């Protein structure tokens, strides 16, 4: 099955770094500048995690945060290197055409409750629709915009990383490259054939991790890098850095975080506890379920991170935190 790429472009309108999608969502788009690989200690990773947590915990319930890291192999262009002395010529010859892995990081804050944009003709991206977008953001969007800007400002107070807004031209270029399979020389189609995705000369595979139990009992902010660590010095790496620059292939890592509403879950579970209390004498299974729900309620009430991480809610929903790996093979 083949889809023309121009038909699945999700952009309805662009305003500065704000993207209005054809299905009614509104996205604030940023590019992240992360610290150099192998440059952080264990305490640095802890501080980095704390910074992200403090930044996003004040965002409204229902916010979707999408962090996308794109890694692409490219050939080094040595034309700008000096070429006069013998040593300069040898250096230029050595680096010319050598492959290296580039990294670009993007952060998207997604608002999904703009009721004025969720009419049927916006939900279907394949249907021709009126692209008229409200000239002004409503109060809910203005509140969300202020919350996002506060979160970004807090992130930028860290000396380890920075986040800056993308302009409309960069957003459009990024979107076109994404749906064109990062083919740079031609506009092509997306072909779905026998459980694989082919876009031009590039073949795509995907891996999704959709449950926190896949990470084991606990998730650390960093792990020891066994390759470079010695008895006298320990190198650390991020928890999923093995899918970053250490993976020497064209690939993409997407981390999607949904900020859940703990008050909604508290109300739902309180009602369930009340029902189970009335029926706990009718079977041991009811007592077991009641105990588990009470444990979850206690975690929601005492653990501030339960809203941000989604770990409490995933015990009920099973899917809140996603990790996708997209590998591209060049023929």
UniProtKB/TrEMBL annotation:
PANTHER family: CONJUGATIVE TRANSFER: ASSEMBLY (PTHR38467:SF1), PTHR38467
Protein's recorded name: TraG N-terminal Bacteroidetes domain-containing protein
Lineage: Bacteria, Pseudomonadati, Bacteroidota, Flavobacteriia, Flavobacteriales
Any Pfam family the entry gives: DUF3875
Origin: domain of life: Bacteria
InterPro entries the UniProt entry points to: F-pilin_assembly_TraC, TraG_N_Bacteroidetes
Native species: Leeuwenhoekiella aestuarii
TraG N-terminal Bacteroidetes domain boundaries: 10-50
């Amino acid at each position: 099955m083949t889809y023309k790429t121009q038909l699945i472009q999700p952009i309805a309108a662009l305003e500065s770094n704000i993207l209005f999608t054809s299905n009614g969502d509104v996205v604030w788009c940023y590019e992240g500048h992360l610290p150099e690989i192998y440059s952080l200690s264990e305490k640095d990773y802890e501080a980095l995690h704390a910074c992200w947590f403090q930044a996003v915990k004040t965002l409204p319930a229902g916010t979707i945060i999408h962090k996308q890291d794109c890694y692409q192999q490219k050939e080094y262009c040595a034309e700008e290197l000096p070429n006069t002395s013998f040593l300069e010529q040898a250096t230029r010859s050595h680096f010319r055409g050598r492959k290296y892995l580039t990294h670009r990081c993007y952060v998207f804050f997604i608002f999904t409750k703009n009721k004025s944009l969720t009419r049927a003709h916006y939900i279907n991206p394949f249907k021709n629709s009126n692209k008229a977008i409200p000239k002004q953001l409503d109060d809910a969007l203005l509140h969300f915009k202020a919350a996002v800007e506060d979160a970004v400002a807090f992130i930028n107070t860290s000396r380890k990383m920075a986040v800056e807004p993308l302009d409309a031209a960069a957003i459009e270029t990024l979107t076109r490259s994404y749906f064109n399979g990062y083919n740079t020389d031609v506009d092509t189609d997306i072909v779905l054939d026998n459980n694989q995705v082919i876009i031009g000369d590039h073949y795509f595979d995907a891996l999704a991790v959709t449950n926190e139990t896949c990470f084991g009992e606990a998730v650390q902010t960093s792990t020891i890098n066994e390759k470079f660590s010695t008895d006298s010095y320990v190198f650390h790496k991020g928890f999923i850095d093995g899918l970053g620059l250490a993976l020497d292939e064209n690939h993409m890592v997407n981390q999607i975080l949904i900020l859940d509403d703990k008050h909604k879950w508290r109300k739902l579970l309180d009602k369930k506890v009340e029902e189970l209390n009335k029926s706990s004498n009718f079977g041991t299974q009811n007592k077991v379920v009641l105990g588990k729900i009470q444990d979850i309620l206690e975690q929601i009430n005492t653990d501030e991170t339960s809203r941000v991480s989604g770990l409490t809610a995933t015990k009920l929903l099973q899917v809140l935190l996603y990790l996708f790996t997209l590998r591209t093979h060049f023929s």
